[in-house]
What we know:
alpha+beta; 2 helices
Amino acid sequence: MKKSELARAGEDCAVKHLIDKGYSIIERNFRTGFGEIDIIAEKAGDIVFAEVKSRTEGTGFTPAEAVNFKKRRQLVRLSDYYIARRGRKYNNFRIDLIGVVFKTDRISDIEHWENIIEE
């Protein structure tokens, strides 16, 4: 599977995972000049910015290891930008990470870490 196909398949799996957990999907692939938010969802009046990392089983590192300090800082900046540009008010917001691991062409594992950035 090509990298772009793997990323798209991982995002599709993450969307299904969130919907199954009661989230409503607001937007996918929100792009700015300084980055992208993979999934923006809502649950109980809270907005969730979800970063999705997809890997093939046996690559030697986990999806969570791909979200370093620089990426976390970018996610905060992107979420602040999104909230500032949208007029809607939310109770709270958080940034989550969803890691999807594939074995050949099927999901081997999916993990959802909530609130990966604590202030």
